[in-house]
Recover the amino acids of this structure.
């Protein structure tokens, strides 16, 4: 127990040192830069304070997070469903892989522009782009999880005629859960970035539009403030939602 505690404390100290290094470099660069290029730390946090006090940070966040969660949910549902088919049927996986490779190889901005043409400017366009770019991540992780199942264990279950319900619960489901955890962790963080990116090009509101306006008026301190705001959102979501869900799923999969 003391060994694990010491290792955990060491990791926390290393993370704190990494954060300190970022702020130190930011401080040094801001000393030799114009505020329109790199604002100082006090200027940035003052701009962040104004965003929070004015209510702009909360209102934009609620709009963006609604789009993000909707697109994330659709992407996860489609990706896991197709991933199970691909994991269980290698022919389906082989046929479907060109679609996945095409999506992964195409620059995100092309999908954003195409979605604007198809759906116009608004939430539908943003949700579509998020779902489209998230589902390949979930698909690949689900397929890899099923393909990495212990084949000897599956053969043993077949020889001893283990009931299908037991095989699904004790073999397939834990394997899928490991892939789901890895894919969902990456997707949850990526979906917020995709949402803001899509909003920058084609949304009448949300964090993306606020970032566009700040850059148009050269409010670089506000731009940095939005960046910190997004980092805090991702960190909070990871600490309060993703990590507890991961622990629960691992615990449930082990039972």
């Amino acid at each position: 127990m003391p060994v694990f505690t010491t290792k955990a404390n060491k990791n926390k100290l290393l993370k704190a040192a990494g954060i300190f290094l970022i702020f130190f470099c930011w401080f040094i660069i801001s000393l030799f830069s114009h505020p329109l290029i790199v604002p100082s730390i006090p200027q940035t946090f003052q701009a962040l304070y104004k965003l929070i006090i004015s209510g702009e940070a909360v209102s934009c966040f609620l709009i963006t997070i609604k789009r993000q969660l909707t697109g994330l949910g659709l992407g996860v549902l489609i990706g896991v469903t197709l991933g199970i088919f691909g994991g269980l049927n290698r022919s389906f996986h082989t046929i479907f892989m060109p679609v996945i490779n095409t999506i992964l190889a195409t620059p995100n901005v092309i999908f954003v522009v195409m979605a604007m043409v198809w759906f116009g400017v608004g939430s539908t366009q943003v949700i579509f782009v998020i779902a489209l770019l998230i589902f390949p991540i979930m698909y690949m992780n689900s397929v890899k999880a099923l393909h990495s199942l212990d084949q000897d264990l599956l053969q043993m279950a077949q020889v001893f005629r283990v009931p299908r319900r037991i095989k699904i619960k004790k073999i397939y489901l834990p394997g899928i859960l490991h892939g789901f955890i890895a894919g969902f962790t990456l997707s949850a963080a990526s979906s917020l970035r995709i949402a803001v990116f899509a909003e920058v090009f084609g949304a009448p509101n949300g964090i993306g539009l606020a970032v566009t306006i700040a850059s148009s008026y050269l409010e670089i301190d506000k731009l940095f403030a939005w960046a910190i705001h997004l980092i805090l959102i991702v960190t909070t979501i990871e600490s309060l939602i993703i990590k507890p869900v991961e622990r629960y799923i691992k615990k449930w999969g082990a039972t």
Notes: The CA atoms of residues 122 and 203 lie 5 Å apart. Residues 164-202 form the longest helix (39 residues). The radius of gyration is 22 Å. The chain has one domain: 54-254.
